[in-house]
Amino acid sequence: MDHVDAYCERLGIGLLAEPWNAVSNAAFLVAAVLLWLRYRPRPRSLRALPVLLALVGLASLSFHTFANTITNAADVGFIAVFVLWYLVCFAHWYLGFGWAKSWLVVPAFAVLAAVTLPLANLIPGGSGGYLAPLLALITIAVVAAVRRQPWTDLAAAAVVFVVSLTVRTLDQPLCADWPSGTHYGWHTLNAVVLFLVSRAAIRHAREAGRP
């Protein structure tokens, strides 16, 4: 397994080489617990959202304590799973598509990622990979607003995501002046993003009387 040194805070190879980056993953776990206990998501498709949110946090924690190619793949992989599953849920619960048709958003998202890849490659610090999710989030917020469905949480999440992506991108450029880096801000703000989009879907399903 290759050691991965990708962030400003990394001080060495040990478990505590990225203390703030590691501890800040607690934000994902807190968000997941709040979703589960406060909003009690139903049915299972939406109940999966806080579970996936917690797994995003745990995978990120594993990467920022054991930084290698396997934990890096888990970190990126669970984020991708959350994004894709959320888009499928949006198609089903917001747009009213059947589950089979809802899965068509996965290849649609792949096309979006491919089309925006040249622009994404211009964004430094590896943050370009999150351009497609940002554009997808803005799109679903607009779609929800146009359809007069609950959209404020989605719009707020898009705004927070812009800030969190900026914070992530500044990690290396600010390293000389801010040795702890800024990546922990990405974790904290992204926990807010995932909480908001999950809450939006859970609330919408409940208010629409579709348990």
Give a verbal description of the structure.
- The structure is a single chain.
- The chain has 211 residues and is mainly alpha-helical.
- It has one domain.
- Helix 2 packs parallel to helix 10, helix 4 packs parallel to helix 10 and helix 9 packs antiparallel against helix 10.
- The radius of gyration is 17 Å and the shape is globular.
- Keywords: Membrane, Transmembrane, Transmembrane helix.
- This is Ceramidase.
Topology overview:
Blueprint: H1 19-23, H2 26-39, H3 44-65, H4 69-93, H5 99-102, H6 105-115, H7 117-120, H8 131-146, H9 152-169, H10 183-207
Please tally the β strands and state the result: 0
Amino-to-carboxy terminus distance? 45 Å
Structural class: mainly alpha
When the domains are counted, the total is 1
Give the strand content: under 5%
